[in-house]
Structure formats: structure tokens, C-alpha cells
Amino acid sequence: MTERLRKPALAPPPIRPAVPREEDPTTFLEAHYRLVWKTRMADLSFVNPALGIAAVGFRRHRGDWVGVMVTPWFLNLFLISGGGELWGDIPAGERRYLELPCGTLQFIADDDPDLGPYQYCPLIAPVTHLPDMASALAAAGDALRTAFAAPPSPTAPATPEPEAAKTDPVPSRRAFFRRLAGK
Amino acid sequence: MADKPTFYDVFRQRGVSRRDFLGFCALTATYLGLGPNGAASVAHAMQTKPRIPVVWLHGLECTCCSESFLRSGHPLVSDIVMSMISLDYDDTIMAAAGDQAEEILHDIIRDYRGAFILAVEGNVPLANDGMACIVGGRPFKKKFEETARHAKAIISWGTCATSGCVQAAKPNPTRATPIHKLVDRVPVINVPGCPPIAEVMTGVISYILTYDRLPELDNRLRPKLFYSQRVHDKCYRRAHFDAGQFVENWDDEGAKQGWCLYKMGCRGPTTYNACATIGWNENTSSPIRSGHGCIGCSEDGFWDRGPFYERLPDMQQWGIESNADKVAAAGAAGLGTAVAVQLGATAIKRVMKRGDKPDASATQEEKETQA
């Protein structure tokens, strides 16, 4: 292979190592996103005012915090460093693959001045089609249950009913001409 | 066909080493997402199949697609151009001129009837019998019609050819018409972008030439390999969007920090292209990486979608997060909570199933349902 002639115009930002969080990040995250909503997100078209802020089901998984964050503009699976083995420092804006009980998921890294480094897997965005907070919370709970459940055993996908089976196998002469006439 | 050289023969004649050839095959296989054995199958096809001639026509366009293609990072690409295209027919880069050039075109149509690939850059202006674009003393419309019906397949390069681009912007005085609306019996593959990314162009052409068939296309005839995800989905500034960190003014602190350009008019959320993953000029940069929002150049009618520096007007044009499942999303909108319960599970399953490659048709269809 030939040598690379051009260098990337932009180097990723330097890695700021995450400070492990000892306590449950639920309150902290909710407070942060409530502030973001009120200040920077208030007037944007993709924000769904029917939804609120909620950190759902944060728990330690292999030592780090995993949970679903619901906001009026996204529903994402979050990973916060808790000093465990799931977390890994990578530059903000890059992606990494993580093994969860359900399988491998891709996480985006960010380094927020207020939150510090965190990583997330976008699940639903925009959330404009979610009718209310109850359904958003239900979706979040469901996503968590799926993420921490063992992957379903590979079964044969349900074969859709063939088109032919629905129609009369031996079309009548009348039906044949009707079809021809486009009726 | 035995006397016709294979791609590999042509490469070797041009002094390309086998090592470089295999490197090219590996790179192409990677772009095409062919998996671990992909490089071997590309190499095998290139060594055994006779090369297919490509005729490259230029209609109403600016030649930026050719410029992009020629500046593709990999040196072998220039060999592909020189050996497969220039020797046959290309208005811009062939050595022949005048009657000699037109003679070549006739020869190709005669010798390879139904067997050559027609690559079209630009569209066909239909108004006034095509008088807005004259090539070789005749309307391009005529030349296109004569060539297109004998082609095996047509590649529409760039937004000009796929949706009309600036020539078709309102009020479209020349009736500039995209290629796929002018042919009905020849398969068309749309490769939009103004211009398309060089690696996308070489990827598409390599796929067709080696496998002798079109790659999988979405409902707008775009190859799913490269046009299945929104620029927003893979944007390196994506996290700033979700975190609510926006550039509010050019040269403000956010701009210096590289925050999200949505409020400055970025079209990333509505644009399906590979800029965020493949990048430009051998991944040196991309519009967003250089601090400018995406203008959505690969989307239909992007010139008529409002000023480039005003934020996206409404949700109508928004694409859906590639992780969200089509059925679940549509269901949630229509049926409410009962279906929404399944939404999270479906989203997770979808992310897992595809790994890094979303199902393009779903996101695209979803986008259209919304629009």
C-alpha cells in the first residue's frame, strides 16, 4: 500500500481521563440536562415539549454506570465512569464498541465541560414522535431490559406469507379479465 | 472475449506491482463492506473478468465530479481512469478530439452494444429541444438518447445527474432533468453529491466492474453502502448536538471549540452521505471538520431548501436516528404507548444487528414518511 500523502486537517482533542464517580449519577445528570433544556435547547424545533428529563435505571455494570437518559431531544444509553472495567478513555467525538450482555454496541465519546467525559449510544433521536413522557419512560425501561438481557437465540425469522398464497390459486376467468382491466 | 484484457492485465501493463494491486483490492473491499474474504474476491474478479468499457458523458454540469474522481487518494485510481475510461471515451480527459473523438463513441456503441457502462455527469436540459447544452455541435439530449439506450447500466454522477442540482433550481429555465427520469429500460445507479466523494465514486465503479452487477440500492437508487446514514449520525461533532453545545455566531467561542453547527444552518440531520465516515481528500478533512455546516449537497433540490446559513426550518425534512426502528417509530406515532413500549427494545436490537451499518431502506423510508 502506498504511503499516506496527506495528514488529517484536524487532530482529535487530547484525552482528559475520566474521574470515576462513586455515587449514582441520576440526580447529577437530571440537573445538568434540565439546565441545558432551559438554557440552550428551549427554542429548537426538534425538542419535544411533551417530554421531560429523566435518568432511568442507572446501575453499576462491570463497575461503571449504565442507564438510559431521556430528554426532550434524545433517548440515549449512557455510560459514566465508575472506576470499572467497561469504561475506557478515548478522545471526544470518537467511537468505541462495548460488550454488553445483549451484544456489541457503539458508543460516542464526549467531554462536556460540566459533565466531564461520558459515552453514549444514541437510541432514539429525534423524539418528536413519542407522544408523552410515559411512553418515553416505557421505551427507556424496555431498552435497558433488552440491553441487559442475553441475546435471543438465533431463530429462523418468521417468513412473511407469500403473496401468492393470499390470492386465489386458480383465478377465475372473470377475475383474470377484471385484473387486466385494472379494476 | 479471450483477447480482451482483464483489469489486472491493464494494471500490470502500466507497471503496477502485484503488491499495490492487492492493496487496492483490500481497500476497495473495505469501502464496499465486503467482509474478510472481500479482498480475495475483488482480486479474483479483476484477474479473470475482461474489462468493461466505460463511456463518460458530460451534460449540463461543471465537471466537479471528474475533478473529485481524479483527485482520489489512491494512485491506482488514476490508472483505472486512464485504462478503463480515457481510452474509451470521456469528453474531458481523453486524448482524442473533434471527429476522431466522436468516432470512438460510435465504435464503442457498435462493438459493445448492451455491454458498456455509461457514466453521466450532469443532466439533460429538455427545454427548446435541448439547445441549452450543445456538445460536438449537437444538443446533448440527442447524444445522450443515442448512447443511453445501448448501455448496460448507467451511473449518474453527482447531484446534477441525480436530481438536477443548481440547474434545476427554481424556476429551472432549461428544464434540466435528472438521468433516471429519462431512461426506463436501462438500470440507473444514482451517486449524488456536489461532487460525490472520490472513494465513493471509485467504490461504485469498482463494484460494478468487478462483480458485473449494481450494488444494492435504496429507493432513490443510491448505493446503500455509502448513502444509508445521515451525516449527522456519524458526525464527530454529534455529541455537541446532543449536549446542547451550539455555535451561535461564526468566530464565537463555540466555533473555536468545534461545537455543533446546527444553528448555523448545518444540514447534517437531513443529509444522507458518507462525508463523516470516509471524509474528503483521503480523509484529510470534510466540510464540518473545516468549521462549516453541511449544505446537504447530496439531497434532492438542496438549492431550494432555504438559505444555507439559516437553521433547518422545521422537522419535516429531518431524518431519523439510524438506530431507531422504522416499524417501532411509525407505530409509536400512530398507536401511542402500547407500541412505544417496544420502541426501546427495537432500538437496541437494531443497533446490535447492524453493528455499524444501519438498514438504509428503513431510515430512508422513514424519512420520506415524515416528509
Question: What does the model show?
Answer:
The complex is a heterodimer of chains A (183) and B (371). Chain A has 183 residues and is an alpha+beta fold. Chain A has 4 helices and 6 strands; from the N terminus they run αββββββααα. In chain A, strand 4 and strand 5 form a beta hairpin. Chain B has 371 residues and is of the alpha/beta class. Chain B has 3 domains: 50 residues, no CATH class; 176 residues, NADH:ubiquinone oxidoreductase-like, 20kDa subunit (Rossmann fold), CATH 3.40.50.700; 143 residues, Irregular (Cytochrome-c3 Hydrogenase, Chain A, domain 2), CATH 4.10.480.10. Helix content of chain B is 41%, strand content 8%. In chain B, a hairpin with a 2-residue loop joins strand 5 and strand 6. Chain B starts with 6 loop residues before the first helix and ends with a helix. The C terminus of chain B is likely disordered. Classes of the chains: A alpha+beta (183), B alpha/beta (371). Chains A and B meet through helix 1, strand 3, strand 5, strand 6 and helix 2 of A and helix 2, helix 12, helix 14 and helix 15 of B.
Mean pLDDT of chain A: 82
Characterize the biggest β-sheet of chain A: 6 strands, antiparallel
CATH class assignment of chain A:
Alpha Beta
| CATH architectural designation of chain A | 2-Layer Sandwich
Structural class of chain A comes to: alpha+beta
Binned, the helix content of chain B reads 40-55%
Question: Given the helix and strand composition of chain B, which structural class is it?
Answer: alpha/beta
Could you give me the name of the CATH homologous superfamily of chain A?
A: [NiFe]-hydrogenase assembly chaperone, HybE
Distance between the termini of chain A: 61 Å
- Succession of helices and strands of chain A: HEEEEEEHHH
**Spatial separation of the terminal alpha carbons of chain B:** 49 Å
Shape of chain B: globular
CATH superfamily of the largest domain in chain B: NADH:ubiquinone oxidoreductase-like, 20kDa subunit
Strands of chain A, count? 6
